[in-house]
Design goal:
Layout lengths: L4 E5 H16 L4 E5 L7 H9 L4 E4 L2 H10 L4 E4 L8 H7 L2 E4 L2 H14 L3 E7 L13 H6 L7 E8 L11 H18 L5 E3 L6 H6 L8 E4 L1 H5 L17 E15 L2 E8 L11 E3 L4 E5 L4 E4 L10 E6 L1 H9 L4 E5 L2
Parallel strand pairs: 1-16, 2-3, 2-9, 3-4, 4-5, 5-6, 6-7, 7-8
Antiparallel strand pairs: 1-10, 10-11, 10-15, 11-14, 12-15, 13-14
Helix pairs in contact: 1-2, 3-4, 4-5
């Protein structure tokens, strides 16, 4: 079979999805499945839907449009504020988009009215991560300027954590976010369908808190795909981490001199332009020595492997991201 390739166990993704939904529902939180880590892969999306997901998310409009064209049975959420140049495509194929800019929302309204389509928006609020978001103090005034825009429905507010600052959400921050949602609902006499409190970095907060407040929605990709929370990469009990396996091939084997003497060195056909090498762990007793753009150098130690033999690697999240994004790595779907 072709190498390098990534083996994708769709049943494991489905099982992780189902167990994740069950876990968060114990405290009244619904889950949206995030697909940006697998480049909007249709088979992975179907696996999540089979596990009970009713909303899938991506930061790439084209990925979502392909899911729509493929007939995916789920709501589609764009989890990056649309570029003005993307607005037509967003209205055409996306149900809900995250937004932070008035000019973009006005353009969404204009195009939605022209096309005779409603469009739902969720406003992102800056809660300390310093990536996207409206300042909480500015949020009421912002909402006043969008509530009467035609064909636009405000359905919620959201927050993001641990993407820029790598700081996890804590009880105080989540409480302030819930209070903000309360204030918005009371001031504008509206119901926020989604109080979307974060991502895979929220696991420890969720696990430790006795009261999730108004948080009723999270956007999870890493937890479902590789079974960990996003801060310390701690395993989540009951989830598996091996839905994705990378298979590479030995293309050279030679005895080489090292600082510690001669070693049984091999080169395999993967490099750092294809994946994040630091997020790979070999499933044989070999040692990764280093990598270049297209080569991975390993010490075979006592393993009896030769040119043409395959070596398998477990993958953490950013190794999966790299391999699912590049065309240099083949995809093999496993339906167990």
């Amino acid at each position: 079979m072709r190498t390098p390739r990534i083996e994708i166990d769709l049943r494991k993704i489905t099982d992780n999805t189902r167990k994740t939904i069950e876990l968060y529902r114990t405290k009244g939180i619904e889950i949206a499945g995030v697909l940006k880590g697998v480049a909007g892969d249709f088979e992975c999306a179907k696996a999540m839907v089979s596990g009970g997901i009713i909303m899938v998310c991506d930061s790439n409009v084209d990925h979502l449009l392909k899911l729509r064209q493929g007939g995916i049975d789920a709501q589609l959420m764009l989890i990056r504020t649309p570029a003005l140049s993307e607005v037509d495509r967003v209205i055409e194929g996306v149900d809900i988009s995250l937004n932070t800019e008035l000019a973009v929302i006005k353009k969404l309204s204009e195009v939605a009215k022209q096309k005779g389509k409603p469009h739902k928006i969720l406003l992102m609020v800056e809660m300390g991560d310093r990536r996207e978001g409206i300042d909480p103090e500015d949020l009421p005034g912002f909402i006043e300027r969008i509530l009467d825009l035609p064909n636009i429905e405000l359905v919620g507010i959201g927050a993001n954590f641990a993407c820029m600052t790598h700081l996890p959400p804590d009880e105080s921050t989540m409480r302030r976010f819930c209070d903000l949602a309360d204030q918005i609902e009371q001031r504008f006499k509206l119901h926020l369908t989604y109080v979307s409190g974060g991502n895979s970095a929220n696991y420890h907060w969720f696990n430790d808190t006795k009261d999730v407040g108004k948080i009723n929605h999270l956007r999870l990709g890493e937890s479902i795909l590789v079974g960990v929370e996003a801060i310390h990469k701690d395993p989540i009990p009951g989830l598996v981490a091996d839905a994705f396996i990378l298979v590479c091939e030995i293309i050279e084997k030679k005895e080489k001199q090292s600082t510690d003497g001669k070693i049984n060195q091999a080169i395999v056909n993967i490099g750092y332009i294809d994946t994040k090498i630091e997020d790979l762990d070999p499933l044989r007793d070999v040692e990764i020595l280093g990598s270049s753009s297209n080569h991975l150098v390993i010490d075979l130690k006592k393993e009896n492997l030769d040119v043409g033999d395959e070596i398998r690697f477990s993958m953490r999240y950013f190794a999966v991201v790299g391999c699912m994004t590049t065309q240099a790595v083949a995809k093999e779907y496993i339906h167990r």
